[in-house]
Amino acid sequence: MFARLQPATWLPATVLGLGLGYTLITLTRLPWWSLFCVAALAGVLGARRHSGMALGGYRKAWPWSLVPLCLWGLYVYLADSFGNVDLGAVFFHLQAGIKDHGGSERIVAAGLYTLSMLGLLYAFTWLVRRDYRLRRIEPLIAVALLISNPLIFGIGQRSAAVVTDDGGWLDRHYQKPVIQPQKNPPNLLVLYLESLERTYGEPTFGDAYDDLRALGKKGVVFEGVEQINNTGWTMAGMIGSQCGTPLMPAGLVHDRQFEPLAEVVPGVDCLGDLLAEQGYRLSYLGGASTAFAGKGRFYEGHGFDNVLGLNKLKPRLDNPDYVNDWGLYDDALYDFTADEIKRLEAAGDGPWGVVNISLAGHAPTGFPAQSCRERQGEWDGKDILYSVKCSAWLARNLVERLEDDGLLDNTLVVVASDHLAMRVSVWDELTSLPRENTLMLLGNGLEPRRISRRASIVDLFPTILDAMGYPPRQHKAGLGVSLLENSTSTLLERYGKEKINARLLEDNALQHRLWEGLAPQRRENQAPLRD
């Protein structure tokens, strides 16, 4: 049988089968060996069709499907890199800037994907030029590839927002945050734990989450914090939790399309703006570059005095080589965070606020610090649960160290994941479970307890204000509702995630509010709120 297989026929068919098989195992939960089954089947079918090729002869023509195949290749690459493909993240990063990113491994992967796509396109072209039957149906294949591509579908949905009948539904739910001064205001420490979702606390993942579970016994733990659209990457999670709104990309409302954004969400007041007005001295510390995705511009434009990232912190390291692809390891970053809090405490000139974001849990494998390796033993370079356990332990260790040093008196501590994890080594296990973000509040007189509510990260903004003693009007800020107050329902409790996500695709009024100053004038006359 194998002797009769024509190499010039079965080989390009097998290449197409490899592409199809890889797509299937990337987008579904099929086992890895399914790839070879699909490729073998394609090769056999290609060889069986060899007799029909001779009837049609050779015709030099470019298939209609080449561009649709490239678009599918792009989608599979994004899905393989991040798990869920978020067009909002793609659009935002293209405009905010991707300078100094730490995804060097994805650049290598992109190169391999490009070479693979070139081979696949060549194989498809070879078959179309030699098989008259395939040539006849190939335009239909091109159409099918286009309409089935989630990228095209998503772009179509966003384009439909331009002509929607009601592009201001979410914007009418937006409430401008207003707070009143108080005596003896508390300090604030916000620890964002990169991708360290609460789902890691499930028994499936062993003891990876144990240190956060222990830390949560000292404060208020929130259950049911889901992820809505446009909050699923770092900048979106920060803006969602500090501004009370999902991050709607600037898109075509940006008036300088070929330049990076000069400001990030300048049209709304965020946590830093409110606290700066109350006399807070605010600092941001992160191990990655502040140039990436507009992070520095966001904090500098919203009330923060000190914005410290890789470029400013790396020279302070005892060992300048102790960095990873993205930036500083978390044990070094947390040492600098403790030093910054000591500096602010020593100055004694009003309350302070410090925001910090870790790197240890970053997809796909994480960046466990040296102190974790000394404590946890050897790391295989792939197991994300090792990195999760490291991140949880470092966060707990920092909080307890600051408590022991008396630096958290009269301080609210917020521990939260910035977003759900992207594609990691336990992706199939994560996606088979109900997924939730981590959120806990410690200190400032809060009684330890658990609160279970259907919420999203936008509800964190008014919840922080409430916990600090700055309750906003009606306990609302932005699109969020304080989770410490039961009298008002969150948007997810009232409408559900599906409706909120659908509205996010079409709400151009909220988009204009976020980017006011960089966009054409928003509509002043808005219709009354209707559900």
Automatic annotation (TrEMBL):
InterPro entries: Alkaline_phosphatase_core_sf, OpgB/LTA_synthase_biosynth, Sulfatase_N. SUPFAM superfamilies: Alkaline phosphatase-like (SSF53649). One of its GO terms (cellular component) is plasma membrane. It is a multi-pass membrane protein. Keywords: Cell membrane, Membrane, Transferase, Transmembrane, Transmembrane helix. GO terms for molecular function: transferase activity. Residues 262-470 form the Sulfatase N-terminal domain. Signal peptide: none annotated. Its main location: membrane. It is found in: Cell membrane. The chain crosses the membrane at residues 7-25, 31-49, 61-78, 107-128, 140-156. It comes from the Bacteria. This is Phosphoglycerol transferase. It comes from Vreelandella subglaciescola. The lineage of its organism: Bacteria, Pseudomonadati, Pseudomonadota, Gammaproteobacteria, Oceanospirillales.
